[in-house]
Write a sequence for this structure.
């Protein structure tokens, strides 16, 4: 186990990220609503650089009480990272695909010490 | 920093339309080296360039002075589709609202002015994916099969083929093509076969399957005969068509895309088989491009079942439809792998080690890098080698060692 220094906490804006490499391992470190999350930069699908994709909120479909559809909207809670190779989407907080909980990015622990951000590899 | 730990190497936080193709695909090459198949022969039987970005150059190759006039006039209109093309607006959805940048545009810097920009972009994708030979197709031109003016499809086909040979194929030994045949105009097909067979890099011909005319029609027979006589393979390239009445019921791109490509192949392959085209042209090599795998076992079972009950409606057949299907070739992309049991059954049923050809479809949104085939757990090494390149080397008479930059 080793700590990798990612950067200063102050360098992260909300919904910001850094993608770092240590040897063969690449890790995306995301800052969301005051919390850090780190995932391997390797898509579960075909190994694409998932953490270097777009950050977009999850898309939801609005249903009325009678089950009629009222179109699509952005989720206010769920924020996704989208793999730029093929579009696989993962919840930045859980690392999971919205359609299959078993499809999940590999997680890494994040430590913040004295305003400095580390991931544990 | 107080801890004394070095800061890790930082990568770009975003891949965008400006990112170099080699950087987008960098991990594929690294993966090949790590797994030890970096020196295998890899032939990409279906990749694309964006010919619309060169449309002004291409239409300058038009022979017809009136069409040339219209092409020039159309190009000056703001917001219009490129002149004379049959552009389908729904294709804009392909990049999933900007989620997949390489589908949007390859807008990376290119300094090399010695060759057309597309040559450099293709070379970069080949380098990054360890590809020895790449068969290059256009993109939006695959919609020309439904052009309301067949003479325009024919004229554009001729112009594009000339532009491609002069601008791309002449410049790189490893970029090859199956040239566009405007099947709606058989006379032009024969002219194209005659003019381009033997040109550098021309390894066969392609018919876009986005069309509504039966491929077995008697008017096309001379075209197939000419191809067979010259030993030139014929590919049917599937594509989307959101204008088809059935497809109009599908109001999300995902649904249209999932079905539309396959529907092309289902229809044309049914006609091809039931009307005995394999019996009429037994030496013609036929390739079905871009519908994934799973439609193939479906068609084998479905047509066999129906044929055994209704042989009087397919009297030219001397064996089962599935047997004729195993005499033809298929590209793998976009390969379906969410259920490996089904994928394995499909490959076994089609005898994939002999009939399946690797295709990336780069730079489209559902591309498959070569590792997709290498990683399939149920294939032996020789089957993987065949699918990734060795079958295509024989089929298209390639030398199999095109990429000088390969190797760890």
């Amino acid at each position: 186990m080793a700590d990798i220094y990612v950067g200063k906490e102050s360098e992260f804006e909300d919904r910001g990220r850094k993608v770092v490499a240590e040897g063969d391992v690449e890790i995306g470190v995301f800052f969301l609503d005051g919390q850090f999350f780190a995932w391997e930069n390797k898509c579960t699908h075909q190994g694409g650089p998932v953490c270097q994709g777009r950050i977009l909120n999850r898309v939801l479909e609005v249903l009325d009480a009678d089950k009629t559809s009222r179109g699509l909207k952005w989720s206010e809670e769920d924020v996704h990272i989208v793999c730029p190779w093929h579009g696989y989407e993962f919840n930045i907080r859980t690392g999971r695909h919205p359609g299959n909980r078993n499809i999940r990015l590999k997680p890494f622990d994040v430590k913040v010490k004295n305003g400095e951000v580390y991931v544990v590899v | 920093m107080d801890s004394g730990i070095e800061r890790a190497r930082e990568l770009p936080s975003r891949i965008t339309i400006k990112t170099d193709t080699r950087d987008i695909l960098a991990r594929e090459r690294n993966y090949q080296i790590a797994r030890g198949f970096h020196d295998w022969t890899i032939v990409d039987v279906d990749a694309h360039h964006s010919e619309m970005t060169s449309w002004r150059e291409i239409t300058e190759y038009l022979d017809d002075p009136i069409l040339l006039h219209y092409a020039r006039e159309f190009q000056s209109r703001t917001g219009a589709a490129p002149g004379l093309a049959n552009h389908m607006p729904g294709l804009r959805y392909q990049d999933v609202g900007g989620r997949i940048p390489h589908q949007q545009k390859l807008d990376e810097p290119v300094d090399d002015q010695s060759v057309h920009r597309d040559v450099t972009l293709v070379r970069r994708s080949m380098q990054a994916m360890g590809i020895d030979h790449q068969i290059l197709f256009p993109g939006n031109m695959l919609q020309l099969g439904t052009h309301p003016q067949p003479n325009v499809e024919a004229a554009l086909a001729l112009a594009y083929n000339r532009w491609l040979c002069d601008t791309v194929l002449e410049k790189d030994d490893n970029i090859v093509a199956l040239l566009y045949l405007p099947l709606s105009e058989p006379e032009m097909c024969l002219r194209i076969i005659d003019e381009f067979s033997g040109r550098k890099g021309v390894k066969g011909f392609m018919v876009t399957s986005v069309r509504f005319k039966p491929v077995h029609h008697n008017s096309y027979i001379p075209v197939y005969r000419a191809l067979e006589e010259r030993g030139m393979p014929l590919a049917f390239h599937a594509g989307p068509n959101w204008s088809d009445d059935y497809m109009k019921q599908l109001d999300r791109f995902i649904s249209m895309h999932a079905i539309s490509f396959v529907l092309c192949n289902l229809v044309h392959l049914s006609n091809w088989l039931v009307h005995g085209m394999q019996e009429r042209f037994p030496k013609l090599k036929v390739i079905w491009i871009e519908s994934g795998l799973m439609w193939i076992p479906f068609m084998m079972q479905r047509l066999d079942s129906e044929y055994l009950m209704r042989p009087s409606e397919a009297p030219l057949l001397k064996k089962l439809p599935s047997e004729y299907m195993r005499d033809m070739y298929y590209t793998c992309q976009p390969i379906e792998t969410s259920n490996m049991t089904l994928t394995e059954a499909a490959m076994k049923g089609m005898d994939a080690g002999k009939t399946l050809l690797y295709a990336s479809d780069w730079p489209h949104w559902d591309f498959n890098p070569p590792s997709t085939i290498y990683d399939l757990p149920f294939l032996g090494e020789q089957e993987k080698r065949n699918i990734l390149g060795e079958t295509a080397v024989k089929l298209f008479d390639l030398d199999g060692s095109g990429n000088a930059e390969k190797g760890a």
